[in-house]
Amino acid sequence: MYFQHAEGIRAEYPELVAAAIATTGITAAADIDVDVDGQVARFIAAAKARLADGTESDLAPIKAWRQTFSKMGLKPTQYRCASEALLRRLRKEGDLPRIHPLIDLCNAVSVAFAIPVGVFDLDEISGDLEVRHAVGDEDYLTFSGTTEHPEPGEVIFADAAGHAHARRWSNRQSGRSAVRRDTSRVLIVTEALHESAPDDVAELMKTLADAVAATWHVTPTSAVLGPGAPRFEV
User: Fewer beta carbons below 10 Å: N end or C end of the chain?
Assistant: First the structure.
């Protein structure tokens, strides 16, 4: 399967820079050494240092996502990209919730860079995964188990079966492909639109891929995606 952004998305947002990481061998089993506490603490400390002189809304990656949400017709203070939501929670509560070692690691890297990071269970994705505008008949499974249908034109992560794995682009992931304790095969996606995104996304990708490799003793594949190389083969 492959992951890509539709041509219409890239044409509408030429400043978009994305990266993808895929790997097999992820586990959260208690008998496997998957301690990420030290790494999580280090990345969260970096995020707190970024917030020392202001709030998350002052950070360039967040400003760019807010502008993108406005362009999509969404109120930025009502619908926030994933990294802004995490940074806001970190600023208010002083820490992030622990969910799963991989999710905890990705969330910590996300706040350190102020860039959204999405993690998908590949076994729950049917065929290829594409960021595109919704037709309106796709189905989105919430974490509570209810089904929603994205608005026509909404930016979603959609697979070949018409499942929406994220709504409002980087705002909310589906419960269908959320990482669970029995997850083994994952796709990690990060996207940014600010001026230094090419350098920041490449650094984030390497940082996260190295952390995953060291923690689970796996060999991830990864790539930065752009107009010249828009598709990531999993």
Answer: N
